[in-house]
Amino acid sequence: MNRQMSGDFTNIARWYDPLSRLVFGKAQIRAQEAFIPFLPETGRVLLAGGGSGWILEAIAAQRPSGLEIVYVEASSGMLRLARKRNSGMNRVWFVAASVEDYTSREGRFDVVITPFLFDLFAPEQARQAFLQLDEQLQPEGRWLFTDFVVTSESPRWQQGLLTSMYLFFRVTAGLRTTKLYDMSDLWAGRFEKEWEQPFYGKFIRTAVYRKSRHL
Q1: For residue 82, with 0-12 CB atoms within 10 Å meaning exposed, 13-18 middle and 19 or more buried, which class applies?
Q2: Please, which pLDDT band fits residue 128 given cuts at 50, 70 and 90?
Q3: What is the largest CA-CA distance in the chain?
Q4: The whole model's pTM is what?
């Protein structure tokens, strides 16, 4: 894949979380914290594109031990920040790689987490990343998902905000994507939705999916 499609956030890594909170308040934080109760007490977790790693501390607050987390992040700047986080007694392995290139050598995972990941990809790259991650998740495993949602029926302020976000990250991080990919066709036939909740005026959606046992 052309890595420029998903951008390089290294140069703005230290500013990413403050900027996010300036625009969205705590909405993105709440959207990710909402799926943490769906994590098992013990198990292997693939956290794909975790950014600065604050979510590791949020996970440790509810699951202080028992998890083996593989933290895959392409940005070296984000990875440096994530390594400094308090993960409790959970074991965390940090991997510098693009999620669409990563393959576990230790077998499949019980859970895959993708926090605001797919909005970085153009349609074909999003599909490639999804299929690669799907391959890492064992049958009946859970996929904890959160991302932005904009449709033709979304309010104009959401469409305008999304356009502004893409423009900003194109300038600061080299992001080339210009619109969100509708992932509904990827979930269909592969996963059952167990839970869903909207945030920030339905501009953000968090969902928990269970993978079919036959895949």
Answers
A1: buried
A2: very high
A3: 46
A4: 0.92
